[in-house]
Amino acid sequence: MNGLLIIDKPAGLTSHDVVNRVRRFLEERSVGHLGTLDPLATGVLPMVVGNLTRLAQFYGASEKTYEGTIRFGFATDTYDSDGEPASPAHEVHVSLEQLVELARRFVGLVEQLPPPFSAKKIKGVPAYQLARKHQEVALKPVQVEIKEFTILGVEGDQACFRARVASGTYMRSVAHDMGQQLGCGAHLQSLRRTRLGEFDLSQAHTLEDADAACKAGKGEEMFIHPRLLLPEFPCVTATEEGVALIRNGRAVNLPELSQARQVKVFAGQRELIAIATRIAGTLFHPRIVLAAEPARPAASK
Question: At the top level of CATH, which class does the domain 64-196 belong to?
Fold first, then answer.
């Protein structure tokens, strides 16, 4: 079974918890996810299944869009509402105008310190493992890009926002840093990912609906049509001879597609068999072979 489906991750589960659930109801061991979500967060979590797990390398730098809520008044050790308060809570009054002006400072290329409870590694050890043991977490600031950060409204000590960011950006750190700049402390109250790369919530399924579809024998109907994956790569359909060559990792002549450097190669309309790279002219080499091995006839007795 090869495919990609979008799960609307619920709060309270890790991304790996979701992988395990999907493995069980698809009865497929080879399952991975694109873009980790914290347990607090919900929303778009693309799951790659079977041979399509090899596509994960193309999504490492995917742009992400979030909606969420920041609570002002105290910081937490995890920078979100799952953590322990780092200081006593106190009443604050923030205005929409104040936060809109502050948000502008976070747009563009900015230096950001990752949260101590994160997967960033320190001498090979994930930071969260050190933080849980109350050991020193000496992370270094990294440059991230926040392409859009809009404060949508303010109610009491909470502000809702929308953000569009490059890979590697922690919205928990944005919330924490805003609190520091205001001098009142803050943390991320809630977070929902509405888009990752070309995938959005309109394509997402709950775990319950996905499980029910599998039990009804309609599991593969949840998969995104493979021609919609990696839209930056043109689609090309190989001949039977070309498919055979690609299955064996050999270069193949494909129809001319302007000067595209990489293409998605299909056998028929739905079977994505390779990502191929142009060598010269119409000659392409399969960079990644996704085609399953053809079934062999049973040996005669």
Answer: alpha beta
* Four-way CATH pick for 227-289: 2.30.130.10, 3.40.640.10, 3.90.930.12, 3.40.50.300: 2.30.130.10
pTM score, two decimals? 0.88
In tens, the pLDDT along 199-239 reads: 999 999 999 999 999 999 998 899 999 999 999 999 999 99
Query: What are the domain boundaries of the chain?
Result: 3-62+198-224, 64-196, 227-289
The partner residues of 43 in beta bridges, in order of sequence, read 9, 193
Catalytic residue among 8, 17, 38, 157: 38
CB atoms within 10 A of CB 88: 8
Write the DSSP string, 41-88.
-EEEEEEEEGGGGGGGGGSTT--EEEEEEEEES--BTTSBTTS-BSS-
Is residue 211 part of the annotated active site? The answer reads no
Query: What's the rounded mean pLDDT across residues 39-67?
Result: 95
* pLDDT score at 124: 65
